[in-house]
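Sat 14:20. Reprocessing the chain from the morning session after the first attempt stalled halfway. Input below, unchanged.
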Amino acid sequence: MKPTVFAVRALPGGVPAEVTARAELRGGEAKPAPRERIHAEGVEAGILVVTYLDRVDDALLDGLPNVRLVASYGVGVNHVDLPAMARRGVVVTNTPDVLTDATADLAMALLLAQRAASARGTGSSAPAAGGTQVRSFSWVAR
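Finished this time. Tokens:
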């Protein structure tokens, strides 16, 4: 018998085939399911899949008595009441460090761009007034 998984909303990129082959997936629509529907359709679920937008607390799990694992699609767990999960014996997983390299790469790119602009005598410690956004990099070419 396959374990039942309830996804509060669709995940970016869809659900991997490995998951659908090994579990009965419920939920997962584009818009998040209302709590009443989560409770009705997820009552048998042992695994709850959420994103950082979905609050997971005692009130949610009161209607999901079989949940033993909360899988959070994302880096943080600020949206999960960790003490409540510990009291219930529910394991919480997430994807730590998934953005570490990308953040470091962006920081280095900004430092190098600032250094290059300073070497040309066009650098500034902040974008010029007038609404130029830092992430557009348009301030580097000045």
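The first strand starts at residue 4 and ends at 7.
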